[in-house]
Design a protein that fits this description.
Layout: E1 2-6, H1 10-21, E2 25-30, H2 37-40, E3 44-45, H3 55-77, E4 90-94, H4 97-113, E5 120-123, H5 125-131, E6 140-144, E7 148-149, H6 152-165, E8 169-172, E9 175-180, E10 183-188, E11 191-193, E12 197-200, H7 206-210, E13 220-230, E14 240-242, E15 249-251, E16 256-259, H8 275-288, E17 296-307, E18 314-317, E19 324-328, H9 334-350
Parallel strand pairs: 1-2, 1-12, 2-8, 4-14, 12-19
Antiparallel strand pairs: 3-7, 4-6, 5-6, 9-10, 10-11, 13-16, 13-17, 15-16, 18-19
The structure holds flavin-adenine dinucleotide.
Flavin-adenine dinucleotide binds near residues 29 and 260.
Length: about 375
Amino acid sequence: MSYLVVGGGILGASAAYELMKQGQDVTLVDSQMEGQATYAGAGIVCPWVSARKDPDLYALARASAIRYPELVESLRNDGADDTGYRLCGALALAEDEATLQELYQEAVTKREETSFVGDVKTLSNQEAQAMFPPLADDVKAVYVSGGARVDGAKLNRALLQAFQNCGGQYLEGSVSLEVSGDHVVAYINEERIEADEIIVATGAWTNDLLKPLGLELLLEPQRGQIAHLTLIEETADWPVVLPQSSHYMLAFEAGRVVMGATREADSGFDYRLTAGGVHDVLHEGLAVAPDLVEATLEDVRIGFRPMGPDGKPLLGRVNAFSNLTVATGLGPSGLTIGPYIGKLAAQLATGTKIDQTIDHLDPLRQT
Ligand SMILES: Cc1cc2nc3c(=O)[nH]c(=O)nc-3n(C[C@H](O)[C@H](O)[C@H](O)COP(=O)(O)OP(=O)(O)OC[C@H]3O[C@@H](n4cnc5c(N)ncnc54)[C@H](O)[C@@H]3O)c2cc1C
């Protein structure tokens, strides 16, 4: 069987890699859109203390977070060892004692289901600052050792590299789809490409691709602007910082600190930095970590999160056609759940039995 995966962000790349691991004949095509969410994504992988309380989403995030070390090992074995993944721990911040206790309880309760949550402890301000020195003097934190981070751009490159090392074919180009009888056919830059099965994983752009098939998902782009700062000191071991707002922070090697991010509904595909967006990110971030005020502002990235109707992925076969699987809608959690959803998409395309129900993720759901 031949498989075509359209879209080479974390979701498409994960699906394509999974198919290769099953020994299939796979082509992956990506059109290198400006605003790819995976490149812009911050990279927090920590569902153990999360603002998103949906149990279905948590189940997916937990399955994916637990699987990350195994994926990293598999990529390494396939010749791609720079994934930017690290189990660095997380600090969930609180300004008052009641919130601190709630965060602590959430992590401890989740640890009853999986030991991957790791150590959970409340920290004084001084202890929190010892782990993430620029933090403000008025915050306390719950520390969770099972929090992790991943560099979306590096992981994506690693997935594509391992995919090709396993024999997969990667093409750059824009795909369009057309109906032919009961199935869908694909064209790359107007040239027809034969594939028995097609997986559409084109993130926020998916409706553009599906329109000629008469399909429209409840899916919108949500712009995120996200700042990359640099410091002189080494920051590789710093934990992820999760305040009570959507303005988080995380650090990578060589003094890089990422401060995110705006969540701009109704942005359309407007690929621009805005004065308000950059102000918002820096203002909120510096309120949490004022000592970053002297850091160098290296870069501000823009990404379009693929937002479905309810924060949950859009994943499933499209029954109107014999060969089409759709996978998108990863929203703000895609660097966490992308590898797992990619695996499920590959299983759907190959007809492999999935040992959980995914009916609630129906990509054509209208609520
Ligand atoms: C600012 C920001 C911060 C984030 N932080 C986090 C975080 O900390 N933790 C977390 O878990 N998640 C985070 N996310 C969410 C995560 O980045 C996304 O959910 C995820 O990357 C979506 O992946 P995707 O593969 O579905 O889409 P994308 O990465 O957008 O990939 C879609 C791909 O499809 C291609 N494409 C589109 N149309 C076509 C076509 N016609 N033909 C061929 N190719 C096509 C594009 O070129 C693109 O490469 C963040 C997102 C943003 C924007």
